[in-house]
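User: Predict structure, ligand adenosine-5'-diphosphate.
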Amino acid sequence: MGKFGAIYFPSDIKESIDDIIGNETKKEILDDFFKALKKYDEFTSQLKDTNLNPNLTILLYGPPGTGKTSLTRGYAKKYNIPICVVETDRLVSPLLGDTIKQIRRVVDLAAEIARERKSFILFFDEIDAIGSERSNIHEVGEIKRAVISFLQVIDRINYEGIPLAIIGATNHQNQLDSAIWRRFTFHLRFDFPDYRLRKKIIESFLKKLKNANIGVDNSIFNKLDEEYEEIQSISKALSKKLGYVISEFENNLLWNEYSKKFKKEGLIKLTYGYSGSDIERGTRVALLKAINTSILTYDLFYDSMLLVGGTAIHVERQDILSAKKEVRNFSATKNTQPSPPEI
Ligand SMILES: Nc1ncnc2c1ncn2[C@@H]1O[C@H](COP(=O)(O)OP(=O)(O)O)[C@@H](O)[C@H]1O
Ligand SMILES: [Mg+2]
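Assistant: Predicted complex:
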């Protein structure tokens, strides 16, 4: 199975679900899901009389770096269940019939492990590689056959009552074959963190540095609090004026108002359109810089975040991009902070 991905035993997994900040509703659903897998026999015997299919399948979708893989591995650790993370594009072959054979092989192996170990997780990362135009299968008929074969193996797992959870993840939900989409019981959407969550994520990484005895200037925390209060006040005033709670991702209102009033760009605003993973990368860059200065200052941290840039630039989120550009153009003329790169 190593040919297609990696198997992790719970003791090998470093992540904890607490490392992924926020996402509370999704965590509740995932918790129920993994509890059902853990008590699979009880769960299926209860379902038996209802004629309902156990179907322990979840599709996680949304931009890269938003915690899909980490959170799943975190749950595997929490519930002490081994997990195989399959790089789905490695199953896909341009040779006629090969993709189908590989899909069956992986699922058969996983089913065998699941029977032996009483529970197992099969995680298809980038599942859109099966049956999307992005896949490197060139013949349309072959794409369809691969999708059908995938659906058949999922059905078989459910029918045979194998304690195997099948989880799919994709950053390209629009390209995922709709038949695959429908076959999953749960669909959990991951998204770029909003300003509230970004503050928490930034703080959590800074605290990790502090816990590792790396010097962190405490004024970073104060400045974050201050910026957060400012954003909150603008957000509240706007909501009151408009009569609904505004989201920073829906339009430019929040950041335009903020720029008008505060004429600066702090960390929370800078990281608009950043994923949790981008913030992690920025923290790592900051750490490298801090080695020389022995203390991580606000400016150093800010410059590191600026340097790594946000994922929204690379994925098809024109809404975030155009809003960000407008805000940037506005603030570039007014503020004294270093100008962000052109996007
Ligand atoms: N909500 C979050 N809180 C804290 N860290 C996050 C969050 N989302 C993503 N990350 C960071 O980004 C890393 C990569 O996330 P990952 O699970 O690989 O994303 P995905 O599978 O969605 O592409 C995680 O290990 C974590 O360090
Ligand atoms: Mg992933």
